[in-house]
Amino acid sequence: MTPELIVLCLAALLQVGQIALYSVAGQAQAGTKAALKPRDQKIELTGKAGRIHRAMNNHFEALPLFAIAALVTAHAGSTGFTVAMAWLYLLARILYIPAYVFGWVPWRSFIWLAGLVATTLMLLAALI
């Protein structure tokens, strides 16, 4: 398995961790009774629980693009540059969670951008 695919696997596990964190935070705020009900009515989480939810959703948006980049670079040929960009993506996604939850302004935006730039550079490297 290429290093980019290893990072992709770790990024997917990070998403599982974010789902667990969201579940714990959501139940702590809304209660187990609300968590067990059907989702006919949306449960609005606020504060840290809401930010955890939004950070999780942000990774759901970023992960498919990174997955494409990891798969394409694995097929095109792994390089030191693409491996470094894959690790940068993962580091950015890990740092994004506390940056979002604790409101690290403007660092949250820079951290998010680092992950997007790393993914974009991986895609461009695969084309060159």
TrEMBL record:
InterPro entries: MAPEG-like_dom_sf, Membr-assoc_MAPEG
Gene3D superfamilies documented for this protein: Membrane associated eicosanoid/glutathione metabolism-like domain (1.20.120.550)
Signal peptide location: none
GO cellular component entries: membrane
Residues passing through the membrane, by range: 65-90, 110-127
Superkingdom per UniProt: Bacteria
Keywords: Membrane, Transmembrane, Transmembrane helix
Subcellular location field: Membrane
Main location, first listed in the record: membrane
Entry keyword Transmembrane: yes
Cross-referenced Pfam families: MAPEG
PANTHER family noted in UniProt: BLR7753 PROTEIN, INNER MEMBRANE PROTEIN
Name of the protein: Membrane protein
